[in-house]
């Protein structure tokens, strides 16, 4: 899937004073969905790391498992 707008791009568009309210709502929603997708992918990647890789980043297996189980909407 190709992303046409990055989150910083969405922030720039949302800062524009000339956008209608519905456009602002749509941009905020798109930003939230983008952030949720990033969290989901990051947590999925974290859950796939082996113990050696987790040690390299200073995370225990239990910490990684706990983080990976969190829902995407929770920061």
TrEMBL record:
Keywords of this entry: Signal
Source domain of life: Bacteria
Signal peptide range: 1-23
InterPro entries xrefs: YjiS-like
Residue ranges constituting the YjiS-like domain according to the UniProt record: 30-65
Listed Pfam families: YjiS-like
Entry protein name: YjiS-like domain-containing protein
Annotated organism of origin: Seohaeicola zhoushanensis
Record lineage: Bacteria, Pseudomonadati, Pseudomonadota, Alphaproteobacteria, Rhodobacterales
């Amino acid at each position: 899937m190709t992303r046409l707008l990055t989150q910083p791009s969405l922030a720039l568009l949302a800062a524009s004073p000339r956008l209608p309210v519905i456009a602002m709502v749509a941009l905020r929603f798109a930003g939230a969905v983008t952030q949720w997708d990033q969290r989901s992918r990051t947590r999925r990647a974290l859950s796939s790391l082996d113990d050696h890789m987790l040690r390299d980043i200073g995370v225990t297996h239990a910490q990684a498992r706990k983080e990976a189980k969190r829902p995407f909407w929770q920061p």
